[in-house]
Structure formats: structure tokens, C-alpha cells
Amino acid sequence: MFFQGNKKPDNTHEVVEGFSHLGESLSLEGEIECRGEIEIAGKVLGNVKAKVLKILESGKITGLVKAERVEILGGVIGNVDASTIYIGKNAFIRGDLTYLNTLTILEGGDVHGMVKRMGQSKAKYADDDKVRYLDQSKKTQRAN
Q1: How many helices (H) and strands (E) does the chain have?
Q2: Structural domain boundaries of the chain?
Q3: For the chain, does the N or the C end have fewer beta carbons within 10 angstroms?
Q4: Is the pLDDT of residue 11 over 70?
């Protein structure tokens, strides 16, 4: 079920210390903390913290997810907090996403929750001023 060693991630040149794989037939209840990379193909009921986390198509986490990089191809029921988040076309998330650098959601990725970028103060939406202007214009027109 668990394979240890050093694995070089597919999309970077950085070496991640340790690699673990939770197989498709595995169901685990409890907390997972991994200083390296972990792939989850089975079911986890509990929070997962890792440097690099990949949830495969058959994988599902019910709990909070925190990592530097997260790739979700399966499902998460809980909030996701990461520097970089990648959501595949068949993935589903039922919780909030908080990211620092990059958020990628492929067409078909199903996200129900809020999306926030870390380190941003209260976001000002570009349309806020336009909406205020339109509301004020309507009030002015009614008064005339």
C-alpha cells in the first residue's frame, strides 16, 4: 500500500522527499501528514496535509486538505488550502478553495464552494463602481 523513496514530480525539477501511494482498495479513517508526495486512489475520512498531494480518479477525501501543490482528479468534500491547485475535468469539490499562486480548473471540473486567493485584502470587483453608477442613475431618473 505504501511505497517509499524519492520521486521527481512530473511537472517540475524539484525532488520531493518520500513518495506514498494509498491504493484504490484502501479506506482510511484518520489524519494523514506527509512531508513528501502522496497519491490517494482510495477513500480517506480525515484531514490530509502533504507537500504534494495527488487525488487520483478513484480517490476521495472527506476532510480538510492542505498542501503546497494539490492535483484533484477525484473528489474532495472539505476545504482545500494550497499554493497551487489543479482540478481535473472529472473532479468534484464540495468546499472552499484557497490558493496562493495558481488555480486551474479544467472544463467539467465541479466546484461547489468559494474560491479565495491567499494574501489578498478585500477584493474590489471591477463592476462595483458601475453598479453603483447605474443604481444612482435610476434614482436620479425617478426623481426627475
Answers
A1: 1, 13
A2: 19-143
A3: C
A4: no
